[in-house]
């Protein structure tokens, strides 16, 4: 059927309108695309260029050099050594198992190592490099580097690893570093990205742990170009990290070496302090351990050897060991009574060998008694009854207050692991701790450093330094940070009258230098170096009434771990005190026989700046001292290099 002219005209207009609409829509789409292309090519070009580069440019963290640790003379105690290692990045390799198989043909990797590596790879983000092997030889490292094109995601790397050149000498004080563990990370809210790198070394104990934040430094980074297989093609840029701070300690490496050897095979500790400024010159705990064993992860055999030793080589007895101070505490009781005006130095007290207190008999160490004793004689011969009597006059609270002023029962502010507070007990302390009332007998026991009283060798050294100087000497272990001297913390006068301190010093002088002094056998012969001190012997077992009746068993007849602890504190020279020392020998039986000779020898080494001349010893002790000194393997200062501090970025 043919359309009429009018119908044809209408249809033509309809087609023309549809075409115009379609053409307009097409033009609008083209315009939008053109505008978008213009924006992408001109305005957003930089952003898309960076996104494109992200497919071929990777950011790698650069671990900083860990800060070095030196002794007071500039001798390195903790340093860094070059370490050849190989890492793998999961994101940059298609087949981790195949890559590891290829690596095993080039360098020694055990099945156990492979299992650990795969475990680390699964736990870490795909962009984090995982250490496959470290401490490689140059030949092993070179083989990996040469075969790099066939090992996608594998990167040969040269890093730094911790090294302790003085080995056992500073194991407890400096501590050690080790690989970061899940436990370490669990204690941190926002861990440093460096710590997520497997086998990154973190301070675990000692100064390494306490000063971790400043020793670690800050990470650097490098931008590297990689190909489609993930292999690094070239380094585009590098921003070096900030190395950690260098620390200089107050310790003297030669004195520390001597002190540790002088403790011989004992389970013991000694601390030497400069009484003029609080510098800790030696802080030795025996037996010690080699911290290098822990840097890479200690073997099961080595760890069992350390943990199963009954002398506890991993424990730092200088600050972690708490012991009844025994008769070294008598200076506390004496000063408390003098200050309270309850005794004079000349007043005598009768010692028949025991005293009755609250229906209980408290015995003196000398069964026959000491007779009439004043303060000097009571210290000289270490009469217990004298101090039992003083304790009933002065009371436990005043004794505790004096103990804390002398440093006992107060936690020393030192960057060391598990520093203990000690115990200077009071009535309230016992009630809060044990829910029991304080007894009169508790006061008598505390007067001679037994019962609830506990102190570390560090506490005892602080006490000796404060008695010697009359100042509130605070121990200092870090001498300088990056060459900046740290403040000396001798701030206040001790607040004890000089006349009272002189009375106690007179008694300590008699202990060592009088004809009946308990430590006369360990005196110093040279007048200008004479020392004052106090012996102590603390019981670790109860002596029953029946045993006392039939005769107390001698220490030599008891098993080692049932014998008394031996203690000694001292300072020298008497007229112008410079050094204070404390020695504790676990189960050493007697302070005069086990601890005093060690303290005398360590003090002499400090005073002489090395082995002292023969005439520093009494004539009867010279042959033995010479024989002992000849057996020691002392460090030779001429063979110890003092590395230059590396420059800081």
From TrEMBL:
* Annotated ranges, domain Penicillin-binding protein transpeptidase: 269-603
**Where this protein primarily resides, as one coarse class?**
membrane
What's a Pfam family this protein contains?
Transpeptidase
Instruction: Locate the transmembrane regions by residue number.
Output: none
Subcellular location(s) per record: Cell membrane; Membrane
Coiled coil regions, renumbered to chain: none
Provide the alphabetized UniProt keywords: Carboxypeptidase, Cell inner membrane, Cell membrane, Cell shape, Cell wall biogenesis/degradation, Hydrolase, Membrane, Peptidoglycan synthesis, Protease, Transmembrane, Transmembrane helix
Can the keyword Cell membrane be found in this entry's annotation? yes
User: What protein am I looking at?
Assistant: Penicillin-binding protein 2
Organism of origin is Thioclava electrotropha
Gene designation? mrdA
């Amino acid at each position: 059927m043919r359309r009429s002219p009018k119908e044809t005209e209408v249809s033509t207009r309809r087609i023309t309108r549809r075409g115009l609409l379609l053409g307009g829509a097409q033009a609008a789409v083209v315009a939008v695309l053109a505008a978008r292309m213009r924006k992408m090519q001109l305005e957003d070009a930089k952003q898309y260029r960076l996104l494109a580069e992200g497919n071929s440019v990777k950011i790698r963290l650069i671990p900083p050099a860990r800060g070095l640790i030196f002794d007071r003379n500039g001798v390195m105690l903790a340093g860094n050594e070059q370490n050849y290692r190989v890492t793998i990045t999961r994101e940059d390799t298609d087949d981790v198992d195949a890559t590891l198989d290829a690596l095993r043909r080039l360098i020694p990797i055990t099945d156990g190592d492979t299992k650990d590596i795969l475990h680390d790879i699964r736990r870490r983000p795909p962009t984090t490099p995982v250490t496959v092997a470290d401490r490689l030889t140059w030949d092993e490292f070179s083989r990996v580097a040469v075969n790099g094109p066939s090992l996608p995601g594998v990167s040969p790397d040269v890093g730094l690893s911790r090294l302790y050149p003085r080995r056992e000498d500073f194991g407890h004080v400096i501590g050690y570093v080790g690989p970061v563990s899940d436990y370490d990370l669990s204690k941190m809210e926002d861990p440093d990205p460096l710590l997520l790198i497997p086998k990154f070394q973190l301070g675990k104990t000692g100064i390494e742990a306490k000063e971790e934040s400043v020793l670690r430094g800050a990470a650097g980074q490098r931008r590297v170009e990689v190909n489609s297989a993930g292999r690094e093609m070239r380094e585009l840029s590098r921003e070096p990290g900030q190395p950690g701070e260098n620390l200089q300690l107050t310790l003297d490496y030669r004195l520390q070496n001597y002190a540790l050897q002088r403790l011989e095979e004992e389970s013991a500790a000694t601390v030497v302090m400069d009484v003029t400024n609080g510098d800790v010159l030696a802080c030795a705990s025996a037996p010690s351990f080699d911290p290098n064993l822990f840097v890479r992860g200690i073997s099961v055999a080595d760890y069992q050897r350390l943990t199963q030793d009954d002398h506890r080589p991993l424990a730092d007895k200088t600050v972690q060991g708490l012991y009844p101070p025994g008769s070294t505490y008598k200076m506390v009781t004496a000063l408390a009574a003098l200050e309270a005006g309850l005794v004079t130095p000349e007043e005598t007290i009768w010692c028949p060998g025991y005293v009755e207190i609250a229906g209980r008999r408290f015995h003196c160490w000398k069964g026959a008694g000491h007779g009439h004793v004043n303060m000097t004689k009571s210290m000289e011969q270490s009469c217990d009854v004298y101090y039992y009597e003083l304790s009933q006059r002065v009371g436990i609270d005043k004794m505790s207050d004096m103990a804390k002023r002398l440093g006992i029962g107060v936690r020393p502010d030192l960057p060391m692991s598990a520093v203990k507070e000690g115990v200077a007990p009071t009535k309230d302390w016992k009630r809060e701790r044990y829910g029991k009332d304080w007894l009169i007998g508790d006061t008598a026991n505390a007067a001679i450093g037994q019962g609830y009283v506990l102190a570390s060798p560090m506490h005892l050294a602080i006490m000796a330094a404060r008695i010697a100087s009359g100042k509130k000497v605070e121990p200092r272990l870090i001498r300088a940070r990056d060459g900046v001297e740290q403040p000396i913390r001798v701030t206040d006068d001790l607040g004890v009258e000089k006349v009272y301190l002189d009375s106690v010093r007179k008694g300590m002088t008699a202990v060592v230098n009088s004809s009946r002094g308990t430590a006369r056998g360990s005196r110093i012969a040279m007048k200008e170096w004479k020392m004052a001190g106090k012996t102590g012997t603390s019981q670790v077992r109860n002596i029953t009434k029946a045993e006392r009746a039939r005769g107390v068993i001698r220490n030599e007849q008891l098993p080692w771990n049932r014998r008394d602890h031996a203690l000694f504190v001292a300072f020298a020279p008497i007229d112008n005190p410079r050094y204070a020392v404390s020695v504790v020998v676990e189960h050493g039986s007697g302070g005069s026989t086990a601890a005093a000779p060690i303290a005398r020898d360590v003090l002499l080494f400090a005073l002489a700046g090395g082995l002292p001349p023969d005439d520093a010893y009494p004539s009867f002790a010279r042959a033995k001292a010479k024989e002992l000194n000849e057996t020691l393997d002392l460090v030779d200062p001429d063979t110890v290099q003092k590395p230059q501090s590396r420059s800081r970025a």
